[in-house]
Amino acid sequence: MQKVIWKPGNMLYPVPAVMVSCGDTPENYNIITVSWTGTICTDPPMCYISVRPERHSHAIIKRLMCFVINLPSEKLLRITDLNGVKSGRDMDKFSENHLTPVPARKINAPLIGEAPVNIECRVVEIKPLGSHDMFIAEIVAVNVDDNLIDPKTQTLHLDKAKLFAYSHGFYYLLGKKMGRFGFSVKKSKK
Amino acid sequence: MQKVIWKPGNMLYPVPAVMVSCGDTPENYNIITVSWTGTICTDPPMCYISVRPERHSHAIIKRLMCFVINLPSEKLLRITDLNGVKSGRDMDKFSENHLTPVPARKINAPLIGEAPVNIECRVVEIKPLGSHDMFIAEIVAVNVDDNLIDPKTQTLHLDKAKLFAYSHGFYYLLGKKMGRFGFSVKKSKK
Q1: How many CB pairs under 8 A join A and B?
Q2: Total domain count, chain B
Q3: Are B51 and B132 spatial neighbours (Cβ–Cβ below 8 Å)?
Q4: Is B4 inside any structural domain?
Q5: DSSP per residue over A132-160, as a string?
Q6: Which of A2-6, A170-174, B172-176 has the lowest mean pLDDT?
């Protein structure tokens, strides 16, 4: 395989595309879509979002030191894209997108009611890196649509949420299920 | 939508599943698969991987302060899974998986020749968080399979790489392409 060398750039894909909600009153509730997000620690459960200082949500999260990561399902794709392009300075992200703010349990922020999973996060550090500041956070609660949970086994079927990924400028639905973690060493191979 | 509240945990999906390669001599070359990885800054381009201190690669990366993120294509899925389960203490990850180590351009580490994209990273900080240490890194070079690049336009067609994502215990191929970033505000909607 012949390789071309490119200058340094972001080429780590696929990544999530999630809606981050924040604010402490309906008047300043806001939503920003980010793809620079991920899990950074299993125990304690921690994650991050990276946000440009000039974004409207940046000041809100910095002031309140908390935010919600909302996983969007396929039917929220257009709104997810819109909330990454438009600023909360110019529109009310909840009402104009017909999204329902629901109070979070553990933090001072609204969940997006229509998102199947809402992850409540408390910021422990803001790390300036350049174009983006990284908000390092502890996960303090997780809210899950109970239609995704098997009532008998209590197993979460996250695939029913119809999540999508972001890869080099495009959104993709998750496609063919290729195996479970550890399948390569299991005797009954999938 | 009725929501169930769960205790804090990692529920941010889909995420990448990438093979990280490291080492300064063929004898200590190693590979570890991680999903706790992401982009943290656009300019300068920066990313991270989170690794448990007890993993074999942890000491190697800490000593050399560099690593390569290799994006695996569909045909590398089984090896990707295996390299997340098995330890480099017990197997030679390159030779036993028939992978080709190729010297990186800018850092002291091997690329995985068979991976379509290799991202060379230099560690700038190691941040202990609990179960995992976060290796915060600058991207110093990107190597791309030239079959993914349109020879006329020089456009990268990353979808040809057949990447996959990891979501709540399972690997999924990227599926239906749903639109380009910004499609929600374009006049010619996709």
Answers
A1: 322
A2: 1
A3: yes
A4: no
A5: -EEEEEEEEEEEEEGGGB-TTT--B-GGG
A6: A2-6
